[in-house]
Design goal:
With 51 residues, this protein is mainly α. The protein is built from two helices and no strands.
């Protein structure tokens, strides 16, 4: 069991960080633009719910 637990946390982070690293720069600006508008909408809804 210890063998399956050690390789699981090791390869997972490295594998996920390696491929996205090349696709992160081009998608970073696109995700940030859409994320900001969504964040603002969520904040407004949260304020209304709290108030």
């Amino acid at each position: 069991m210890s063998r399956s637990v050690l390789p699981s946390p090791g390869p997972f982070p490295l594998g996920t960080d390696a491929p996205p690293t090349g696709e992160v720069p081009p998608f970073a600006p696109v995700r940030v633009r859409g994320g900001r508008s969504r964040l603002h909408r969520l904040v407004r809804h949260r304020r209304r719910v709290v108030a």
